[in-house]
Write a structure and sequence with these properties.
Distance between the termini: 36 Å
Number of helices: 5
Strand content: over 45%
Shape: globular
Structural class: mainly beta
């Protein structure tokens, strides 16, 4: 693993002799993160204060491009060391606050122009997406919330970032490669967990201004005896279509991360968020198809491992 520091003036410096590293890939929020520690000879002392971007390479392959958050040079029994830490490009949208605004009949292109382009974000293909009603960006919202809120309301998906720092305007799940994890995979540990707390069984959405109410039901959870009803009041400018979507969306969000499979395997970058993994792991009698939602690869003198957090495909 090698790291490159990119300065604001465009100058690029390669970090020397890596001692340890970590690359966490989520594709979204919480956003990607990295940490790399190398030998320090003082030559980068003048460079570090101006380094604002970072690129990590495994051999010649780019594995993450992101924003430099901090650096630390230290001296100890192990000699002089330098550690640089940061996050993926989603950090630029998370860190910058949007102004409160209400759109009427807004398109995705306009949202990108106002809430992504000013922060240096680049993106791939833009789907033809328009929301005919009112779309509000509330005071205190981040640019990420302004963007992801629009795509969620208008099309029902959250965009994500690739390892190269490009914004992809489509859902993360199923966007990557198909992989197989079975008895031939060097599995170091495995954990299967499920949480019921926080899962919504019913969402009652009310539009008090027009006397309209709609109940969205989580039939699968109700069928297992689940009981957690919540009430959401729609703003006066809401509409029935948005109300129904909001109820279903809140139920969907309440289930995220509640049933997960976590596996640690030998080797780096065994999979990436968006990959679909066919898992056959007999010690815990696990057999099924899973979406990778988080991939945590790290390495040091003891070796290289990847911890995958996966959710069962619905």
């Amino acid at each position: 693993m090698t790291g490159e520091l990119i300065c604001f003036d465009g100058t690029v410096y390669r970090m020397p002799n890596t001692l340890s590293w970590r690359v966490l890939r989520t594709g979204g929020v919480p956003c990607d993160a990295f940490s790399i520690t190398c030998l320090y000879d003082g030559k980068l002392r003048e460079v570090l204060p101006t380094a604002y971007r970072f690129a990590a390479y495994e051999g010649d392959t780019l594995v993450l491009r992101g924003v430099v958050d901090s650096w630390q040079a230290e001296s100890g029994t192990e000699g002089l060391r330098l550690t640089v830490e940061g996050r993926g490009m989603a950090a630029l949208l998370l860190d910058n606050e949007a102004e409160a605004v209400e759109y009427q009949g807004v398109t995705l292109e306009e949202i990108l122009r106002n809430h992504a382009a000013p922060w240096g974000i680049t993106w791939g293909d833009v789907p033809a997406l328009r929301w005919a009603g009112a779309y509000r960006v509330e005071s205190g919202s981040s640019q990420w919330k302004a963007l992801s809120g629009f795509t969620s309301v208008a099309r029902g998906f959250t965009p994500h970032f690739t390892h190269t720092g490009t914004l992809e305007l489509r859902a993360l799940a199923g966007s990557g490669e198909s992989r197989l994890l079975d008895s031939s995979t060097p599995v170091l540990s495995c954990r299967l967990r499920e949480e019921r707390y926080g899962v919504i069984s019913e969402m009652l959405v009310k539009d008090k201004s027009r006397g309209i109410r709609h109940t969205a039901r989580n039939e699968a959870f109700l069928g297992r005896g689940g009981s957690r009803r919540q009430v959401l009041y729609l703003p006066a400018a809401g509409n029935l279509s948005a109300m129904r979507y909001t109820g279903a969306y809140q139920i969907q969000q309440s289930e995220r991360g509640k049933r997960q499979l976590e596996m640690t395997v030998a080797g780096g970058f065994a999979a990436q968020p968006g990959d679909v993994v066919q898992v056959r792991y007999w010690p815990l009698d696990i057999s099924g198809s899973y979406d990778v939602v988080e991939a945590d690869s790290r390495g040091d003198a003891g070796g290289v491992t990847t911890t995958l957090v996966m959710e069962e495909r619905s």
